[in-house]
């Protein structure tokens, strides 16, 4: 493009004439975009000269502009041997831009094909020389990444992107709440403010190590979706070996790269100069032997690097717009607790939305490990007042693995001395270097595993310990800072509530399931008992009917025999014989009616309602039970209304009700020595709207306490009763629009009364 700027631009500061006319004559070429800023190569074709221009986007934050201004202010300290030099800072209506010298170099973030080992070593040596030059000039870059390394045609690598740089001496004096800075994919753990260290030159070496890893493997060692996960990866995850991505990397070279990206600054190279010497030695061996058989690091004891170490500080991390940056975007952010708040909110939402315990446990442990920067974590829940391991989380080269468990803890799982101290005191326990602790350092687990940073937090709800979270990081000391611990306690409090809620929810679901099973079983039992009760009633009825049928059968046999005798006489008495035959027919019909009534009651099939006289129903049942009444020496009387009013009902069902009430009355009077046994059955009409039928006996009566539950299913006062008869009677009468009552009789005993609506 010919121009991307319009309007007058003035030089804020420059080493030459860079004004509006100069800008208008430029040809612009976009090289790449790094977050909020774009990088261009501009050419002045008439003079065959070119520069690099860095321009913030129109909507870039003020921080992006401040970084350009800061980089330009460092220009006197940036030497051309190792840095791309700023030459002008211009300001206009479209924003600020910075002009830099350009030696036709290319940024090293685009790598179309893998580098050879020799090509990699040459590039790495040049990059280490540039970083060493910055450090010798007293500058801590804090944002080393491929796009800030510019290589020219001669192979010289120069640093750019000094917008986050600080003086080495100033780095150790920065406030503990200084903002996180760097690029998420490359920044050292101490730049994330997650460990108790200030950034120093070794932080730049970590970022350079991530860059070297990417050049060899073709990718970064970690992948993440947001700032919280990136920070966790740098603090706790072990990078996968380079051999996993590329098999031709000599082991000493891979070891050098992995040493650069060690979590603990003390385990890294201590200076870029030492790294530069080792890389040169590796290149010499490779060129001579086409192999790197061995390498003895020049600074293995760190004796020349003590001056670059900085005191430990308890630092915090704060981010805003957490998902706004890629792994390669430079950031410099303040706002003290934004990342912690985001982590808490994310975890709280995840815990709140889980209703299944195993998923809740996995979510809790995963969020805790990521937020705290732990390598390993255990969640223990208290069961029967003893701790039980419910989940184990382990960070590895492949990512985070969560294993659900259900086992008692032992000395192979965690320091038992730490666990029981926390459970007893209900207080968190934070240790920066457990191996060096006078008390816990003697724990067998600590000695076997070399535990460095450890944190143990109780899950407490209403003064009751529900469980314990144990976390450790053996890569670096001081990982679990005070601020991290306070946030984890907040998460632990939320977790305790969620775990208790899920437990109660599961208990409720189990109780509901148990109740459903019981209700299903109860309905089945009721149906079976109702059938048994009906069969019992039928058995009692059959015994009574057998007596009743015997009478017509005996009469029929007697009349038949008499008829034969009348006809066998010398003078047959035909009239007498016909009279006997008529009696036989009558008795046969009576027996048939008895059998039909029994069949109707026993079938319990669909009942068809029709208009009928209630007195006919009563008389029919009285006739059926007559023999039983006589055998028990009961005086049965009936007082039936003379009104011809009818009811709409099932004859069979009403017969069942009357029969059950009569048989109950006979049972009540048979239990005990009653001198006078009386059974009275009456029917009458009340206001021409209802017919009222009552069955009154002189038995033992009803206890007052039993009156309110007399019609409940399975309630009985009999020694052998099923408790279903009166419940069935009530359901029949209710279905017919009537009511069934029980009350004490006037002269002892009990009275049962039912009402039915009259049909006009």
UniProtKB/TrEMBL annotation:
Residues annotated as domain Protein kinase: 7-283
Keyword Kinase assigned: yes
Keywords assigned by UniProt, alphabetized: ATP-binding, Kinase, Nucleotide-binding, Phosphoprotein, Transferase, Two-component regulatory system
Domain (Histidine kinase) ranges: 544-760
InterPro entries: GAF, GAF-like_dom_sf, HATPase_C_sf, HATPase_dom, His_kinase_dom, HisK_dim/P_dom, HisK_dim/P_sf, Kinase-like_dom_sf
Main EC class the enzyme belongs to: transferase
A GO MF term: ATP binding
PANTHER family linked to this entry: PEROXIDE STRESS-ACTIVATED HISTIDINE KINASE MAK3 (PTHR43065:SF10), SENSOR HISTIDINE KINASE (PTHR43065)
Catalytic activity: ATP + protein L-histidine = ADP + protein N-phospho-L-histidine
Phosphoprotein found in the keyword field: yes
One Pfam match: HisKA
E.C. number(s) listed in UniProt: 2.7.13.3
Protein name in the entry: histidine kinase
Transmembrane portions of the chain: none
């Amino acid at each position: 493009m010919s121009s991307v700027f319009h309007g007058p631009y003035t030089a804020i500061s420059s080493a030459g004439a860079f004004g509006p006319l100069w800008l208008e004559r430029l040809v612009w070429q976009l090289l790449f975009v790094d977050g909020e800023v774009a990088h261009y190569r501009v050419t002045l074709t008439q003079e065959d000269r070119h520069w690099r221009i860095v321009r913030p986007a129109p909507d870039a934050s003020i921080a992006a502009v401040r970084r350009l201004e800061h980089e330009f202010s460092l220009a006197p300290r940036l030497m051309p041997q190792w840095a791309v030099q700023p030459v002008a800072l211009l300001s206009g209506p479209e924003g600020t831009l910075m002009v830099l010298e350009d030696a036709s170099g290319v940024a090293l973030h685009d790598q179309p094909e893998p580098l050879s080992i020799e090509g990699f070593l040459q590039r790495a040596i040049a990059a280490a020389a540039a970083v060493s030059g910055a450090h010798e000039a007293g500058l801590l870059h804090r944002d080393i990444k491929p796009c800030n390394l510019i290589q020219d045609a001669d192979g010289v690598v120069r640093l750019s992107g000094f917008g986050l740089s600080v003086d080495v001496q100033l780095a150790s004096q920065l406030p503990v709440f200084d903002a996180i800075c760097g690029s998420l994919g490359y920044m050292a753990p101490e730049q994330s403010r997650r460990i108790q260290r200030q950034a120093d030159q070794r932080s730049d070496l970590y970022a350079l190590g991530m860059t070297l890893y990417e050049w060899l493997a073709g990718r970064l060692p970690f992948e993440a979706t947001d700032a919280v996960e990136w920070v966790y990866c740098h603090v706790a995850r072990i990078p996968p070996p380079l051999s996993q991505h590329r098999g031709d990397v000599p082991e000493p070279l891979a070891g050098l790269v992995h040493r650069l990206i060690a979590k603990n600054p003390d385990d890294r190279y201590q200076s870029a100069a030492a790294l530069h010497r080792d890389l040169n030695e590796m290149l010499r061996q490779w060129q001579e032997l086409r192999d790197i058989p061995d390498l003895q690091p020049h600074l293995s004891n760190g004796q020349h690097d003590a001056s670059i170490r900085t005191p430990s500080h308890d630092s915090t991390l704060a981010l805003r717009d957490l998902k706004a940056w890629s792994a390669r975007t430079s950031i410099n952010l303040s706002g003290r607790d934004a990342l912690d708040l985001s982590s808490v909110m994310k975890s709280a939402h995840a815990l709140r939305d889980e209703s299944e315990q195993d998923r809740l446990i996995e979510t809790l442990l995963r969020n805790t490990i990521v937020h705290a920067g732990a390598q390993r974590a255990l969640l223990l829940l208290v069961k029967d007042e003893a701790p039980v391991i419910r989940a184990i989380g382990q960070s590895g080269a492949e990512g985070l693995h969560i294993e659900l468990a259900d086992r008692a803890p032992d000395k192979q799982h965690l320091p038992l001395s730490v666990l029981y101290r926390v459970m007893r005191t209900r207080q968190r326990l934070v240790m920066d270097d457990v191996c060096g602790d006078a008390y816990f350092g003697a724990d067998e687990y600590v000695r076997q595993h070399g535990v460095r940073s450890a944190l143990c937090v109780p899950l407490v709800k209403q003064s009751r310990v529900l469980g314990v979270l144990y976390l450790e990081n053996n890569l670096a000391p001081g990982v679990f800072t005070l601020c991290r611990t306070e946030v984890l306690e907040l998460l632990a409090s939320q977790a305790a509530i969620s775990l208790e809620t899920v437990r109660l929810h599961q208990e409720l679901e189990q109780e509901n399931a148990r109740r459903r099973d019981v209700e299903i079983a109860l309905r089945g039992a009721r149906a079976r008992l109702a059938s048994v009760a009906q069969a019992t009633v039928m058995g009692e009825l059959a015994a009574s009917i057998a007596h009743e049928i015997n009478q017509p059968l005996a009469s029929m046999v007697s009349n038949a025999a008499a008829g034969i005798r009348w006809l066998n006489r010398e003078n047959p008495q035909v009239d007498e014989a016909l009279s006997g035959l008529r009696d036989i027919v009558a008795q046969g019909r009576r027996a048939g009616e008895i059998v039909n009534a029994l069949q109707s009651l026993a079938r319990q099939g669909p009942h068809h309602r029709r208009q009928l006289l209630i007195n006919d129903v009563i008389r029919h049942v009285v006739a059926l039970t007559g023999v039983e009444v006589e055998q028990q020496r009961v005086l049965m009387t009936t007082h039936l209304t003379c009104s011809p009013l009818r009811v709409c009902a099932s004859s069979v069902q009403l017969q069942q009700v009357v029969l059950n009430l009569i048989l109950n009355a006979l049972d009540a009077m048979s239990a005990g020595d009653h001198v006078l046994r009386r059974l009275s059955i009456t029917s009458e009409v009340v206001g021409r709207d209802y017919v009222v039928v009552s069955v009154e006996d002189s038995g033992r009566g009803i206890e007052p306490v039993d009156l309110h539950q007399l019609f409940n299913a399975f309630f009985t006062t009999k020694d052998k009763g099923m408790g279903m008869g009166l419940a069935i009677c009530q359901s029949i009468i209710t279905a017919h629009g009537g009511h069934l009552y029980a009350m004490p009789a006037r002269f002892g005993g009990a009275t049962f009364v039912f009402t039915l609506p009259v049909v006009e």
